[in-house]
Amino acid sequence: MTNENKKFVVQQHSSGSDVHWDFMLQIGNALQTYRLDKAPQELIRCPAGAVKIFDHPLKFLTYEGPVKKGRGSVRIADSGSYEISNQKEDRIELDLDGKLLKGRFTLSHIEGDNWQFGKSGI
Predict the structure, then answer these.
(1) What pLDDT score does 121 carry?
(2) DSSP output for 48-96
(3) Contact call for residues 67 and 13 (beta carbons, < 8 A)
(4) C-alpha to C-alpha distances, 1 to 13, 26, 84, 87, 108, nearest whole angstrom
(5) pLDDT one-digit tens code per residue, 75-117
(6) What is the pLDDT of residue 3?
(7) What domain range includes position 64?
(8) Pairing of strands 18-27, 48-56
(9) pLDDT tops 80 at residue 122
(10) What is the pLDDT of residue 69?
(11) How far apart are CA 47 and CA 102, in angstroms?
(12) Predicted model pTM
């Protein structure tokens, strides 16, 4: 996969009073997705809890609007390209080049579907 095909997006997902962010990495023909409890601008200063959820279709790289079955709506909070700089079973280091998220970030496995996502070195 070439670098220009390695895209990421962070979508703000609002459903009533619930707001969370979905961090999605293009892996092949799907978007590996993690539900974050912090907005992209907060991730620069402090890590967030990240729960690995189901993969999303590639259309979510650019989609904004209502989500099926009355699950609220989404809007793009950040997007760009990425490279995996180092990957182990319990840790993935990513070099992100987005509008807000720039630099090295790490996904660290905690337990089950629970991960932590944040800027490396903070």
Answers:
(1) 76
(2) EEEEEEEEE-GGGGT--EEPGGG--EEEEEEEEEEEEEEEETTEEEEEE
(3) yes
(4) 28, 10, 12, 16, 24
(5) 999 999 999 999 999 999 999 999 999 999 999 999 999 999 9
(6) 47
(7) 3-119
(8) unpaired
(9) no
(10) 82
(11) 14
(12) 0.92
Joined tokens for residue 39: 């907005």
H or E stretch at 46: none
**Tally of structural domains, the chain:** 1
pLDDT tens, residue by residue, 11-55: 999 988 889 999 999 999 999 999 999 999 999 899 999 999 999
What is the residue whose two structure tokens read 């390209």? 81
Distances (CA, A) of 69 to 46, 49, 72, 103: 33, 26, 8, 36
**69 phi/psi in degrees, rounded to 5:** 60, 35
To which residue do tokens 């690995």 refer? 52
How does DSSP classify residue 14?
E
Q: What is the pLDDT of residue 70?
A: 80
47-61 CB burial, b ≥16 within 10 A, e <16: bbebeeeebbeeebb
Q: Which of 103, 101, 97, 62 is nearest to 82 (CA)?
A: 97
